[in-house]
From TrEMBL:
It is found in: Nucleus. InterPro entries: Homeodomain-like_sf, Transposase-MT_Hybrid. It comes from the Eukaryota. This is Mos1 transposase HTH domain-containing protein. Signal peptide: none annotated. GO terms for cellular component: nucleus. It holds the Pfam family HTH_24.
Amino acid sequence: MDSSRSAQKAVIQFLRSEGEHASQMYRRMKEVYREHCLARCTIFRWCQRYEAGHVNIKDLPRPGQALIVTNNATISAVDELIRQNRRITAREIAVELSISKGTVHHIIHKKLGYGKVCAQWVPKHLSEDQKTARMGVCLTQQFPH
């Protein structure tokens, strides 16, 4: 049995077209769906919508920010801004790219692996070339002769 919201909305629409009252609908649906049943106020609200002429049981799209902003283009844009200016702040990046500061924080720390050291963004882990270069510097410093 499908206990999704859209399935229950379809049942509400069907029972409403038969002339069933909202309180009776709630009792019948509570017996069938048990803990997965829509709330009583939700059933009443949907009954009112169907009486007003709404026939679509799907949720309509809502305005607002997209759920997924962390795509490859955004990640590379954040990386490019950091490479141009290592002292840039997360707030400045957020304003520049028109994304939230939390998203910038997630991209910087989780996706790019950067951390703040002496007010500059640096990779948390060294690449193999950087490790080799450091080893070479250490060896020349240890044995100057």
